[in-house]
Amino acid sequence: MRRVVIVTLDGLRRDFISEANTPNLIAFSRQAQRFEDYRTVFPSCTRVVSASLATGCYPARHGLQGNSVALMEDGQLVLRDAGDPEFLQHKRRITGSSLAMPTLAERVKSIGGAIIFSNVSPGAAYAHDPDGYGHVYHRAGSFGPGRVPVSVEDRLDVTLDVAGDRRMTERFIDEVLAQRRPAVAVLWLGEPDHIQHEAPLGSPEFFEVLAAADTHAGLVIAAVEKLRAEGDDILLLIGSDHGHETVTGIIDIDAELVAAGLKAGEGSTDVMAVSNGTSALIYVHPDHAGIIPRLRDFFAGQDWVGKFFGLDQLETIGQRPDGGLAFAISMAASDAPNAYGVPGSSLAAKPSMGKPDRLGCGQHGGLAKYEQSPFLMVSGAGFRPGETSDDYARIVDIAPTALRHLGLDASGLDGDALQSVPVEE
Predict the structure, then answer these.
(1) Which of 130, 181, 252, 258 places its Cα 20 to 30 Å from the Cα of 235?
(2) What pLDDT does residue 155 have?
(3) Is residue 190 domain-shared with residue 330, that is, in the same domain?
(4) Higher-scoring residue by pLDDT: 357, 28
């Protein structure tokens, strides 16, 4: 029986993987193919990455532009948090679709289905299957086909911490892998991302949580090996969705725009700077499109801007000018180390909706070196055990790789299957 198991250690950048820090992942790398030039999407945020992994497409095609976005509603730009449990259902009502491309869950619905266990934000969890083709389990609510809520006894009752990840992992192994045996099984751990937003990278608290995350990955690796010994043909992909940078400063982009005379006032919706951590999406209402050239000149002159992309450049980062999106900004960053000697520092765009600043802690969203350094290891048919590949690989390659293992069509996606060894049909 061919199956695919995908495990994500949210937020783990690949330079933290070592014999001392992550012995289980190092042991797995000796039986898996490791991809050293693995890239995530922009913004490098979990909700966007979840949609990109699930669809095999960039935001330009699946339509989820960021962790936070502005939607055109009744002729006005409205700020929305894509992490909200109801966001994708709201987006469907407003735009006509939750995601504009089919997910893995939809593609495998007739050959064993998909079960997703996720301990990150609700919006990120539901991005794997917003239209209810399979099962999605999350602490904010768990759903089966048709997005029908599961029974009270079947809910995923966990906390966003190491203990919650452990409980979820054990249930995933015992119930999903061993008993229900879907074609695609996804386990998305909340750590070590959660701790990196709360404590400095490289701190004792961080390494304690990282060790636990590695242990959880080791439990899944051992369970898959047992199932393989019993005859299952399992493709096991273990990786992360992004890395982290240390936040060294917070920029209130809306305030900067108001001060420069490029935005009517605080809270106005003519121009909106929507924070996505160490990046920002800049929306311009169509009635005010004439200000776009002045905005371009403004961003070009700001030292807090690392890179910016205008209407004619958005496609180079997997975005497109839909719904008023006019610019994308990756905040200024450097290799400067933090207090614990961990390299990678970045400014962040001031978050909205009451979210806390992350000074001195980890953050992501932009195009800086370390937030764009997730890891990927793959074990199974089509991959060379113990080999380190320098070939370019991307988050959007996960879906076509899974589909190829399952013998399904993967044409028309932005990603490519990563198998380098012929696979028997």
Answers:
(1) 130
(2) 97
(3) no
(4) 28
d(Cα 185, Cα 167) in Å, to the nearest integer? 16
Same-domain check for residues 33 and 128 = yes
For residue 223, give its domain range: 2-64+99-243+372-405
Residue 164 is assigned to a structural domain of this protein? yes
Q: What is the 3-state secondary structure (H, E, C) of 76-123?
A: EEEEEECCCCCHHHHHHHHHCCCCCCCCHHHHCCCCCCEEEEECCCHH
Q: What is the pLDDT of residue 283?
A: 98
Q: State whether 42 and 156 are in the same domain.
A: yes
Strands of the 343-349 sheet, one edge to the other: 333-337, 343-349, 245-251, 362-363
CATH number at residue 330: 3.30.1360
| Rounded Cα gap, residues 71 and 303, in angstroms | 29
Q: Using alpha carbons, select from 266, 295, 272 the residue that is nearest to residue 285.
A: 272
Strand partners, 272: 283
Residue 352 binned pLDDT confidence (cut-offs 50, 70, 90): confident
User: H/E/C letters for each residue in 226-263?
Assistant: HHHHCCCEEEEEEECCCCCEEEEEEECHHHHHHHCCCC
Same domain, yes or no: 10 and 148: yes
The helix/strand/coil state of 359 is strand
How does DSSP classify residue 208?
H
- Are 47 and 130 within 8 A, CB to CB? no
Q: By the 8 A CB rule, do 377 and 34 touch?
A: yes
Residues 123 and 225 in one domain: yes
Please report, as a single letter, which amino acid is at residue 101: M
Give the CATH number of the domain where residue 152 resides.
3.40.720.10
Q: Do you find a cis peptide bond into 43, omega within 30 degrees of 0?
A: yes
Give the CA count within 13 Å in the CB-facing half-sphere of 356: 8
What's the number of CA atoms in the CB half-sphere (13 Å) around residue 188?
33
Query: Token pair of 193, please?
Result: 């991302």
- Please tell me the total count of domains within the chain: 2
Return d(Cα 97, Cα 414) in angstroms, integer: 19
Residues 8 and 110 in one domain: yes
Chain length of the chain: 425
Q: Indicate the average pLDDT of the chain.
A: 96
Give yes or no: residues 150 and 185 share one domain: yes
